[in-house]
UniProtKB/TrEMBL annotation:
This is N-acetylmuramoyl-L-alanine amidase. Residues 36-49 have a biased composition (Low complexity). Gene3D superfamilies: SH3 Domains (2.30.30.40), Zn-dependent exopeptidases (3.40.630.40). Residues 29-55 are annotated as: Disordered. Keywords: Cell wall biogenesis/degradation, Hydrolase, Signal. The lineage of its organism: Bacteria, Bacillati, Bacillota, Bacilli, Lactobacillales. Residues 73-136 form the SH3b domain. It comes from Enterococcus diestrammenae.
Length: 328
Protein backbone atom coordinates (compact mmCIF):
# COMPACT_ATOMS: atom_id res chain seq x y z
CA UNK A 1 0.00 0.00 0.00
CA UNK A 2 2.86 2.30 0.81
CA UNK A 3 4.39 1.87 -2.63
CA UNK A 4 1.08 2.57 -4.29
CA UNK A 5 0.68 5.66 -2.14
CA UNK A 6 4.12 6.94 -3.02
CA UNK A 7 3.45 6.29 -6.68
CA UNK A 8 0.28 8.36 -6.48
CA UNK A 9 2.11 11.14 -4.71
CA UNK A 10 4.82 11.05 -7.36
CA UNK A 11 2.10 11.47 -9.98
CA UNK A 12 0.63 14.33 -8.00
CA UNK A 13 4.09 15.84 -7.78
CA UNK A 14 4.46 15.77 -11.54
CA UNK A 15 1.03 17.26 -12.02
CA UNK A 16 1.28 20.06 -9.50
CA UNK A 17 4.95 20.70 -8.86
CA UNK A 18 4.84 19.21 -5.41
CA UNK A 19 8.11 18.05 -3.95
CA UNK A 20 7.50 15.28 -1.48
CA UNK A 21 9.21 15.32 1.86
CA UNK A 22 10.56 11.95 3.02
CA UNK A 23 7.78 9.68 4.23
CA UNK A 24 8.84 8.86 7.74
CA UNK A 25 7.09 7.55 10.81
CA UNK A 26 4.26 9.99 10.57
CA UNK A 27 2.20 10.89 7.59
CA UNK A 28 4.05 14.01 6.55
CA UNK A 29 2.28 16.75 4.70
CA UNK A 30 4.06 17.08 1.36
CA UNK A 31 5.98 20.26 0.70
CA UNK A 32 5.34 22.51 -2.24
CA UNK A 33 7.83 24.57 -4.19
CA UNK A 34 7.13 28.31 -3.88
CA UNK A 35 6.35 28.95 -7.53
CA UNK A 36 2.74 28.46 -8.61
CA UNK A 37 0.64 30.51 -10.94
CA UNK A 38 -2.34 30.97 -8.64
CA UNK A 39 -2.57 34.43 -7.12
CA UNK A 40 -4.31 35.38 -3.89
CA UNK A 41 -7.32 36.72 -5.76
CA UNK A 42 -7.88 33.38 -7.54
CA UNK A 43 -8.40 31.57 -4.26
CA UNK A 44 -11.95 30.74 -3.34
CA UNK A 45 -12.63 31.44 0.29
CA UNK A 46 -15.71 30.14 2.02
CA UNK A 47 -16.14 32.07 5.23
CA UNK A 48 -19.51 31.46 6.80
CA UNK A 49 -19.88 34.50 8.99
CA UNK A 50 -18.02 37.59 10.02
CA UNK A 51 -16.25 37.53 13.36
CA UNK A 52 -17.49 40.14 15.80
CA UNK A 53 -15.74 43.50 15.93
CA UNK A 54 -12.50 43.56 17.88
CA UNK A 55 -9.61 45.96 18.25
CA UNK A 56 -6.71 45.51 15.83
CA UNK A 57 -2.97 45.93 16.22
CA UNK A 58 -0.59 45.75 13.29
CA UNK A 59 2.64 43.80 13.24
CA UNK A 60 5.30 43.72 10.55
CA UNK A 61 6.54 40.22 9.80
CA UNK A 62 8.87 38.53 7.34
CA UNK A 63 9.05 35.00 6.05
CA UNK A 64 12.46 33.35 5.85
CA UNK A 65 13.45 32.57 2.28
CA UNK A 66 15.93 29.98 1.08
CA UNK A 67 16.45 29.40 -2.65
CA UNK A 68 14.60 26.12 -3.38
CA UNK A 69 17.51 25.06 -5.60
CA UNK A 70 19.63 24.81 -2.45
CA UNK A 71 17.62 22.43 -0.32
CA UNK A 72 16.56 18.86 -0.64
CA UNK A 73 13.02 18.07 0.50
CA UNK A 74 13.58 14.34 -0.01
CA UNK A 75 15.97 14.35 2.93
CA UNK A 76 14.34 13.97 6.31
CA UNK A 77 17.54 15.07 8.04
CA UNK A 78 18.08 18.76 8.67
CA UNK A 79 20.74 20.30 6.42
CA UNK A 80 22.40 23.76 6.65
CA UNK A 81 20.08 24.88 3.83
CA UNK A 82 16.98 24.23 5.92
CA UNK A 83 17.64 27.25 8.12
CA UNK A 84 19.24 30.68 8.36
CA UNK A 85 21.48 31.67 11.27
CA UNK A 86 20.29 34.62 13.35
CA UNK A 87 23.40 36.60 14.33
CA UNK A 88 24.06 39.10 17.08
CA UNK A 89 25.31 41.73 14.62
CA UNK A 90 24.78 42.57 10.96
CA UNK A 91 27.78 40.58 9.73
CA UNK A 92 28.82 37.01 8.93
CA UNK A 93 31.22 36.64 11.84
CA UNK A 94 29.22 37.52 14.95
CA UNK A 95 27.72 35.01 17.35
CA UNK A 96 24.82 32.84 16.17
CA UNK A 97 21.93 33.37 18.60
CA UNK A 98 19.38 31.02 17.09
CA UNK A 99 18.20 29.78 13.71
CA UNK A 100 15.10 30.29 11.61
CA UNK A 101 13.87 27.53 9.30
CA UNK A 102 12.99 28.30 5.72
CA UNK A 103 9.38 29.41 5.54
CA UNK A 104 9.32 30.36 9.21
CA UNK A 105 7.87 33.76 10.11
CA UNK A 106 9.56 36.26 12.39
CA UNK A 107 8.71 39.75 13.59
CA UNK A 108 10.39 42.44 11.49
CA UNK A 109 12.30 45.08 13.48
CA UNK A 110 14.41 47.03 10.96
CA UNK A 111 16.59 46.86 7.87
CA UNK A 112 20.29 47.62 8.25
CA UNK A 113 22.28 47.52 5.00
CA UNK A 114 22.11 43.99 3.62
CA UNK A 115 20.65 42.67 6.87
CA UNK A 116 17.25 42.56 8.50
CA UNK A 117 16.82 42.59 12.27
CA UNK A 118 14.11 40.17 13.36
CA UNK A 119 12.59 38.70 16.50
CA UNK A 120 12.23 34.91 16.39
CA UNK A 121 9.27 33.07 17.93
CA UNK A 122 11.61 32.20 20.83
CA UNK A 123 11.90 35.93 21.60
CA UNK A 124 15.55 36.10 20.48
CA UNK A 125 16.43 39.15 18.36
CA UNK A 126 19.18 39.27 15.77
CA UNK A 127 20.19 39.73 12.15
CA UNK A 128 19.64 37.62 9.05
CA UNK A 129 20.70 38.48 5.47
CA UNK A 130 18.07 40.50 3.63
CA UNK A 131 18.47 38.03 0.75
CA UNK A 132 16.96 35.39 3.06
CA UNK A 133 13.72 37.25 3.64
CA UNK A 134 10.57 37.66 1.59
CA UNK A 135 8.75 40.98 1.37
CA UNK A 136 7.81 42.53 4.74
CA UNK A 137 4.08 41.95 5.40
CA UNK A 138 1.83 43.93 7.69
CA UNK A 139 -0.25 41.48 9.68
CA UNK A 140 -3.34 42.60 11.56
CA UNK A 141 -3.57 41.05 14.99
CA UNK A 142 -7.01 41.05 16.51
CA UNK A 143 -7.46 41.79 20.19
CA UNK A 144 -7.73 38.53 22.13
CA UNK A 145 -11.13 36.89 21.78
CA UNK A 146 -13.06 36.42 25.01
CA UNK A 147 -15.82 34.30 23.50
CA UNK A 148 -15.74 31.62 20.78
CA UNK A 149 -18.22 33.69 18.77
CA UNK A 150 -15.40 36.22 18.24
CA UNK A 151 -13.04 33.66 16.77
CA UNK A 152 -12.10 33.29 13.14
CA UNK A 153 -10.76 29.83 12.31
CA UNK A 154 -9.37 28.25 9.13
CA UNK A 155 -10.07 24.53 8.82
CA UNK A 156 -7.86 22.66 6.38
CA UNK A 157 -8.86 19.18 5.20
CA UNK A 158 -5.54 17.50 4.42
CA UNK A 159 -4.87 16.06 0.94
CA UNK A 160 -7.54 15.82 -1.78
CA UNK A 161 -7.97 15.06 -5.46
CA UNK A 162 -5.11 12.94 -6.83
CA UNK A 163 -3.39 13.04 -3.44
CA UNK A 164 -5.36 10.45 -1.48
CA UNK A 165 -3.19 10.63 1.63
CA UNK A 166 -2.98 7.48 3.74
CA UNK A 167 -4.99 4.41 2.73
CA UNK A 168 -6.60 1.65 4.76
CA UNK A 169 -5.01 -1.79 4.53
CA UNK A 170 -7.83 -3.05 2.29
CA UNK A 171 -7.45 0.02 0.07
CA UNK A 172 -11.08 1.09 0.55
CA UNK A 173 -10.66 4.13 2.81
CA UNK A 174 -8.69 7.23 1.84
CA UNK A 175 -7.39 9.83 4.25
CA UNK A 176 -8.52 12.65 1.92
CA UNK A 177 -12.18 11.59 2.41
CA UNK A 178 -11.88 11.23 6.18
CA UNK A 179 -10.31 14.69 6.51
CA UNK A 180 -12.98 16.36 4.38
CA UNK A 181 -15.83 14.70 6.26
CA UNK A 182 -14.27 15.62 9.62
CA UNK A 183 -13.70 19.24 8.61
CA UNK A 184 -17.33 19.59 7.52
CA UNK A 185 -18.69 18.22 10.81
CA UNK A 186 -16.23 20.30 12.90
CA UNK A 187 -17.01 23.41 10.87
CA UNK A 188 -20.76 22.95 11.29
CA UNK A 189 -20.51 22.73 15.09
CA UNK A 190 -18.15 25.72 15.28
CA UNK A 191 -20.46 27.78 13.04
CA UNK A 192 -23.44 26.87 15.24
CA UNK A 193 -21.45 28.39 18.10
CA UNK A 194 -20.77 31.61 16.23
CA UNK A 195 -17.21 30.93 15.06
CA UNK A 196 -16.33 32.40 11.64
CA UNK A 197 -15.05 29.35 9.75
CA UNK A 198 -13.03 29.37 6.52
CA UNK A 199 -12.46 26.11 4.67
CA UNK A 200 -9.42 25.52 2.49
CA UNK A 201 -11.48 22.99 0.51
CA UNK A 202 -15.07 21.76 0.65
CA UNK A 203 -14.82 19.16 -2.09
CA UNK A 204 -12.40 16.56 -3.45
CA UNK A 205 -9.76 18.89 -4.86
CA UNK A 206 -6.04 19.27 -4.25
CA UNK A 207 -4.90 22.67 -3.08
CA UNK A 208 -1.17 23.31 -2.98
CA UNK A 209 0.14 23.90 0.53
CA UNK A 210 1.40 27.25 -0.61
CA UNK A 211 -2.13 28.24 -1.56
CA UNK A 212 -3.47 26.98 1.75
CA UNK A 213 -1.19 29.49 3.41
CA UNK A 214 -1.97 32.29 0.95
CA UNK A 215 -5.63 31.74 1.72
CA UNK A 216 -4.93 32.08 5.41
CA UNK A 217 -3.06 35.32 4.81
CA UNK A 218 -6.08 36.63 2.95
CA UNK A 219 -8.62 35.81 5.67
CA UNK A 220 -6.40 36.74 8.63
CA UNK A 221 -7.78 34.20 11.13
CA UNK A 222 -7.00 33.70 14.82
CA UNK A 223 -6.40 30.00 14.45
CA UNK A 224 -5.43 27.55 11.70
CA UNK A 225 -6.16 23.84 12.10
CA UNK A 226 -5.06 21.26 9.54
CA UNK A 227 -6.84 17.92 9.87
CA UNK A 228 -5.07 14.69 8.92
CA UNK A 229 -5.26 10.97 9.55
CA UNK A 230 -2.04 9.07 10.06
CA UNK A 231 0.02 6.41 8.34
CA UNK A 232 2.86 4.27 9.65
CA UNK A 233 5.44 2.34 7.67
CA UNK A 234 4.33 -0.94 9.29
CA UNK A 235 0.61 -1.88 9.27
CA UNK A 236 -1.15 -2.17 12.62
CA UNK A 237 1.95 -1.09 14.54
CA UNK A 238 1.00 2.49 15.44
CA UNK A 239 -2.16 3.80 17.07
CA UNK A 240 -3.76 6.94 18.40
CA UNK A 241 -4.08 10.64 17.68
CA UNK A 242 -1.34 13.28 17.85
CA UNK A 243 -1.41 17.08 18.13
CA UNK A 244 1.40 18.97 16.33
CA UNK A 245 2.40 22.62 16.72
CA UNK A 246 5.29 24.68 15.33
CA UNK A 247 5.06 28.07 17.09
CA UNK A 248 4.73 28.55 20.84
CA UNK A 249 1.19 29.96 20.59
CA UNK A 250 0.22 26.77 18.83
CA UNK A 251 1.64 24.75 21.70
CA UNK A 252 -0.69 26.51 24.17
CA UNK A 253 -3.78 25.73 22.14
CA UNK A 254 -2.34 22.29 21.35
CA UNK A 255 -2.26 21.37 25.03
CA UNK A 256 -5.95 22.21 25.41
CA UNK A 257 -6.90 20.41 22.19
CA UNK A 258 -4.94 17.33 23.20
CA UNK A 259 -6.64 17.17 26.62
CA UNK A 260 -10.13 17.70 25.23
CA UNK A 261 -9.70 15.22 22.38
CA UNK A 262 -8.42 12.68 24.91
CA UNK A 263 -11.65 13.15 26.86
CA UNK A 264 -13.84 12.79 23.80
CA UNK A 265 -12.08 10.29 21.49
CA UNK A 266 -11.82 6.50 21.94
CA UNK A 267 -8.18 6.43 20.73
CA UNK A 268 -4.82 6.60 22.54
CA UNK A 269 -3.46 10.12 23.03
CA UNK A 270 0.07 10.39 21.58
CA UNK A 271 0.30 13.83 23.16
CA UNK A 272 1.39 17.25 21.92
CA UNK A 273 4.53 17.31 19.75
CA UNK A 274 6.64 19.81 17.89
CA UNK A 275 6.17 19.14 14.18
CA UNK A 276 8.21 20.78 11.42
CA UNK A 277 5.35 20.64 8.91
CA UNK A 278 4.97 23.06 6.03
CA UNK A 279 1.36 24.11 6.75
CA UNK A 280 2.01 25.07 10.37
CA UNK A 281 5.52 26.50 9.82
CA UNK A 282 5.10 28.52 6.64
CA UNK A 283 2.24 30.56 8.04
CA UNK A 284 2.23 33.85 9.88
CA UNK A 285 -0.54 32.52 12.17
CA UNK A 286 1.32 31.41 15.28
CA UNK A 287 -1.75 29.58 16.62
CA UNK A 288 -1.59 26.78 14.10
CA UNK A 289 -2.07 23.08 14.68
CA UNK A 290 -1.83 19.92 12.63
CA UNK A 291 -3.96 17.11 14.04
CA UNK A 292 -3.39 13.47 13.15
CA UNK A 293 -6.66 11.89 14.25
CA UNK A 294 -5.80 8.19 14.17
CA UNK A 295 -3.96 5.69 11.94
CA UNK A 296 -5.70 4.74 8.72
CA UNK A 297 -3.44 1.68 8.38
CA UNK A 298 -4.27 0.43 11.85
CA UNK A 299 -7.38 -1.78 11.78
CA UNK A 300 -8.03 -0.89 15.42
CA UNK A 301 -7.98 2.85 14.78
CA UNK A 302 -9.80 2.50 11.46
CA UNK A 303 -12.76 0.75 13.11
CA UNK A 304 -13.14 3.79 15.37
CA UNK A 305 -12.41 6.62 12.95
CA UNK A 306 -14.85 5.30 10.34
CA UNK A 307 -17.74 5.22 12.84
CA UNK A 308 -20.38 7.77 11.97
CA UNK A 309 -20.10 9.68 15.24
CA UNK A 310 -16.27 9.95 15.25
CA UNK A 311 -16.12 13.38 13.50
CA UNK A 312 -18.74 14.66 15.95
CA UNK A 313 -16.52 13.56 18.85
CA UNK A 314 -13.61 15.42 17.26
CA UNK A 315 -15.84 18.49 16.85
CA UNK A 316 -17.02 18.40 20.48
CA UNK A 317 -13.43 18.11 21.74
CA UNK A 318 -12.24 20.99 19.57
CA UNK A 319 -15.15 23.23 20.60
CA UNK A 320 -14.41 22.60 24.31
CA UNK A 321 -10.72 23.38 23.71
CA UNK A 322 -11.60 26.65 21.97
CA UNK A 323 -13.94 27.58 24.83
CA UNK A 324 -11.09 27.05 27.28
CA UNK A 325 -8.69 28.91 25.02
CA UNK A 326 -10.77 32.11 24.97
CA UNK A 327 -11.55 31.84 28.70
CA UNK A 328 -7.85 31.82 29.68
ZN1 LIG B 1 -2.10 13.60 5.92
Amino acid sequence: MKNKWLWLVALAALATGIVVAGMKMQDQAPEVTPETSTTNSDLQTTTTSEAKERGVTEEKMVEVYVDPALYDTSSAEETPYDYVSVREKADTESEVLTKLHRGEWATYIKTEGDYVKVRADSGKEGYIPKANTNEVQTIQRLEKATDVSQLSVVLDAGHGGIDTGAESLDGNVYEKDLTLNTVKVVGKLLEENGVAVTYTRTDDTLLSLENVNKLSLKTNPDIFISIHYDNYDYPNQAHGFTTYYYYRDGQKLGNLVSQQLAASLPLTNNDVRFGNYYVIRQTYIPTSLLLELGYVNSDHDLSEITKEDYPEKVAQGLLKALEQYVAE
